[in-house]
């Protein structure tokens, strides 16, 4: 008999955080996050908790932990999208439908009692973070800040009769020697109109991140599932990203001193995290220094242009300038993710430079 208990103590939270280390102990592709960072992420230090109600649950069977999940009621999502949708996230389960269904039943019950009409997920915690269930592309480790799960999760979702809400795509590109000439021609057109591109300045990182927030909240405002970042969330995100940001890969496009576009490419720090095994100690820190020199993959996390400046070659200009930094860094591959399944303009751009679809993620939902 599966028992689902709510996390109410420090020990429960530690069990919640460390369960995946056991679940994935023999999986060669799993990358454990730092336990210390997860403890902060699941605390009041995370500003997401200031506008969302999150509850944490653990499933036990015969005294053994078999799964975990969170329920999320995000007040900003409800207000922004005018829909009573709650979420499940951080879902992990043994290959056991009884465990999975008990966890999802618990979330469903919580959301119903709070007046929600739809349960959607997995979201950890929102579309501003990791989201979706990996449904295709189990052949490699996840790139930084992307989900990973075993294939049997797909069957667990189907058996629970969750329906597809939206698919998200990831593309991979082997770094070419040169970009297509058309990219250069289009980039030149943008440059001749007075658009300039500069790297973020780490000495004024907070200032530049607020510029990013302005572009992000404008460029993504009509995207499916989008929630604007608050100032608190931006600062929290900035503090987490600053150690891994490479300025020449994180670019701001401007015209007449107005920020109009942003491109954020991050080195795949998962290469480092994989060897740290969730721990922060002298040995793991030495490993971090060693393996950080071996990172050869990148992730295009963000590419956004303000709506009134789209279709003017600014994306090509950002790509061209970023490509210079990519080549100087000696990187071999870059992942573009995630891309909405119906975002055809971006998919065409990625395909034009040689990117190929190699992973898919699915967000599910169910009416309550």
Task: Describe the structure in your own words.
- It is a single chain.
- The protein is of the alpha+beta class.
- Helices cover 36% and strands 30% of the residues.
- The chain is built from 12 helices and 15 strands.
- It has helices at residues 10-23, 35-41, 75-81, 97-113, 152-159, 181-192, 205-219, 231-241, 270-276, 282-292, 314-328, 344-352; strands at 2-6, 52-61, 64-74, 85-93, 118-121, 123-124, 130-131, 133-136, 163-174, 195-199, 250-255, 258-267, 297-305, 333-340, 356-367.
- Strands 1, 2, 3, 4, 5, 8, 9, 10, 11, 12, 13, 14 and 15 form a 13-stranded mixed β-sheet that branches. A two-stranded antiparallel ribbon has the order 6-7.
- The longest helix has 17 residues, at 97-113.
- It starts with a strand and ends with a strand.
- The relative contact order is 0.16.
- The mean pLDDT is 93.
- Helix and strand succession? EHHEEHEHEEEEHEHEHHEEHHEHEHE
* Percentage of residues assigned to helices: 25-40%
Share of residues in strands: 25-35%
Given the structure, what is the number of helices? 12
Q: First CA to last CA: what distance?
A: 24 Å
The residue-averaged pLDDT reads: 93
**Low-pLDDT residue spans:** none
The largest sheet is: 13 strands, mixed
Shape: globular
Helix and strand content put the structural class at alpha+beta
SS elements, strand count? 15
Radius of gyration (Å): 21 Å
């Amino acid at each position: 008999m599966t028992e689902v208990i709510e996390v109410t103590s420090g020990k429960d939270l530690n069990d919640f955080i460390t369960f995946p280390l056991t679940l994935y102990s023999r999986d060669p592709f799993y990358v454990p996050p730092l336990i210390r960072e997860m403890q902060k992420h699941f605390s009041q230090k995370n500003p997401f908790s200031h506008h969302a109600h999150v509850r944490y649950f653990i499933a036990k069977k015969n005294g053994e932990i078999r799964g975990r999940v969170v329920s999320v009621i995000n007040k900003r999502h409800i207000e922004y999208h005018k829909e009573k949708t709650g979420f499940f996230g951080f879902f992990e389960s043994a290959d056991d439908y009884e465990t999975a269904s008990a966890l999802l039943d618990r979330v469903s019950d919580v959301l119903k009692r709070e007046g929600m009409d739809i349960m959607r997920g997995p979201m950890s915690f929102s579309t501003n973070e990791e989201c979706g269930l990996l449904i295709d592309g189990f052949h490699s480790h996840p790139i930084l800040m992307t989900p990973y799960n075993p294939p049997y999760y797909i069957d667990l979702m189907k058996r629970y009769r969750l329906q597809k809400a939206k698919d998200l795509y990831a593309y991979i590109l082997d770094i070419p020697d040169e970009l297509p000439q058309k990219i250069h021609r289009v980039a030149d057109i943008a440059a001749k109109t007075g658009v300039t591109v500069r790297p973020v300045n780490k000495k004024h990182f907070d200032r530049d991140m607020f510029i990013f927030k302005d572009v992000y909240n404008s460029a993504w405002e009509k995207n499916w599932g989008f929630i604007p970042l608050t100032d608190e969330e931006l600062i929290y995100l900035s503090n987490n990203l600053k150690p891994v940001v490479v300025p020449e890969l994180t670019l701001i496009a401007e015209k007449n001193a107005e920020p109009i576009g942003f491109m954020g490419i991050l080195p795949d720090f998962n290469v480092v995290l994989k060897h740290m095994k969730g721990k922060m100690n002298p040995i793991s820190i030495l490993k971090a220094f060693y393996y950080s020199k071996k990172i050869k993959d990148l992730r295009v996390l963000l590419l956004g242009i303000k709506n009134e400046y789209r279709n003017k070659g600014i994306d090509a200009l950002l790509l061209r300038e970023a490509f210079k930094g990519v080549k100087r860094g000696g990187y071999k591959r870059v992942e573009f993710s995630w891309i909405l399944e119906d975002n055809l303009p971006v998919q065409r751009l990625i395909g034009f430079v040689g990117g190929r679809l190699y992973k898919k993620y699915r967000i599910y939902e169910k009416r309550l």
